[in-house]
Amino acid sequence: MPGSTKSKKLSLVQSLRKIKGLKIKLRKREILRHLKYSPKSGEIPPETESLIQQELQRAYELMYPCVIYLTVPRSSDTFEKVKNEILKGSEKMEKISSNCVAVTLMASTAGIKIEKEIDNLKKKELTRALVLDAAGSEAAEQAVNFVSKLITEQAREEESCTGMRISPGYGGWDIRVTEKILKILDASKIGIKYTPSGIMTPRKSVAAVQGWFKQ
Tell me, what CATH number does 179's domain have? Predict the structure, then answer.
């Protein structure tokens, strides 16, 4: 990067990216964990196993995974805003703020269609609703997993590495920071909103940050 002096700076430039209709694979093991089932063969009744398979297939038809993410190099003008509004309030955030060379803000959603079907099923077929609910959570999680893998590869190209992905509400980090992450990302571009009651809609959505560090 022009203007580099003491050490090699990231060639990375700040950019906002969004991906709609992301192709992901639902991990059955994680869905069973959400449902409090052991994934070991034979521990799930055959009729329940059949129902789970049916709803997983329907989940692929109903979900519309989307992600939006922004990587902010420490040298960018936006970093100070991210530092002051987001990277604070917990020990982990303070460490990221002090030591990172860049930070990625990200948000994902499984989409509104699967959520509406979950709500509809709750009125008449609760078990199916629970399976679809778990699948929706997994879809949102796999979408941010995609971003994490992508930026980890980008970080390697910059002779850096990425730390743990962290969401508001974990490790003592104020869950209300979610709203600030979504605002900076303009997550409404992928259909995510933050309600006055403090939840994201669609409910099957994730907001997180991930720091970049020099190796």
Answer: 3.40.109.40
